[in-house]
Specification:
By secondary structure, this protein is of the alpha+beta class. It is built from 8 helices and 6 strands. The chain has a 4-stranded antiparallel sheet with strand order 3-4-6-5. The protein has a two-stranded antiparallel ribbon with strand order 1-2. Strand 1 and strand 2 form a beta hairpin. Helix 3 crosses helix 4. The N terminus is likely disordered.
């Protein structure tokens, strides 16, 4: 399928929430480059099958050990994801939905119910994880909200995480707050706050439109300034307030 270029329908003014330099410096002299935040830079990841930054990895291991004593086997379904991996997910869904008869904008809206636009995923940071209880059997897609509700295979896992995750600085990202917009409720997606909060601060300073218009992936030509501004507001920033 032929790639299509990003369409420039309007100006870039007002798209970035704040404009920061290409490298943002935070406490402890930690720097996050734009390439790093977009999943384009190789970063040091730790743990076989874990693939997180060192501090996030160590906190996860401690949490996993604590859960094990209570009969819970925290299993990572997904952690770090590169730009290329996120692009593959986005394009696979875009092709599927448009082949099923959806017009491009409908397909994109469907995709961003649960999946991010390449370059904007929190999974690019090495701080976020999608997790389940590996001790429980579940058929089909394990990352479905109903599997974490009463009677579901991960009901006890969810209760344990609700009671204990914060002790290890892990917080649910996309809550079930009925007033929240953007991505749908994801009871499996947790983020290591001490790292992801400053990384989100850096990410908020990016001019998303300017960065995305340099990319070339399926569906990107339909991203207007209005769409990107709404996506930033609803999908990137309307999250658990503890992570802002």
């Amino acid at each position: 399928m032929q790639r299509r270029s990003f369409i420039r329908r309007s100006g870039l003014s007002g798209v970035a929430l704040t404009i920061l330099p290409a490298t943002v410096v935070f406490q402890d002299s930690v720097e996050f480059s734009i390439e790093e935040l977009m999943g384009k830079e190789r970063i040091e990841l730790h743990g076989e099958g874990i693939n997180l930054r060192k501090k996030a990895h160590d906190a996860f291991v401690a949490m996993k050990k604590a859960a094990h004593t209570d009969g819970i086997n925290i299993h990572i379904v997904s952690s770090f994801r590169s730009f290329a991996q996120q692009q593959a997910i986005f394009e696979r869904k875009y092709e599927q939905y448009t082949a099923d008869g959806m017009v491009p904008l409908e397909a994109i809206d469907k995709i961003i119910e649960y999946s991010t636009i390449p370059g904007t995923s929190r999974h690019h940071w090495g701080t976020d994880i999608d997790i389940i209880d590996g001790n429980k059997k579940a058929t089909g897609d394990v990352l479905m909200p109903e599997k974490f509700r009463a009677g579901g295979p991960f009901e006890e896992f969810k209760k344990w995480m609700d009671e204990n995750a914060k002790k290890f600085d892990y917080y649910l990202v996309y809550t079930d707050d009925p007033k929240r917009k953007g991505f749908k409720y994801e009871p499996w997606h947790f983020s290591y706050a001490p790292l992801s909060i400053p990384m989100l601060t850096a990410f908020r300073g990016k001019n998303i439109m300017q960065l995305l218009e340099q990319e070339d992936f399926m569906g990107s030509e339909h991203f207007t300034t209005g769409f990107v501004k709404t996506y930033i507001r609803d999908n990137i920033l309307d999250i658990n307030s503890a992570l802002l």
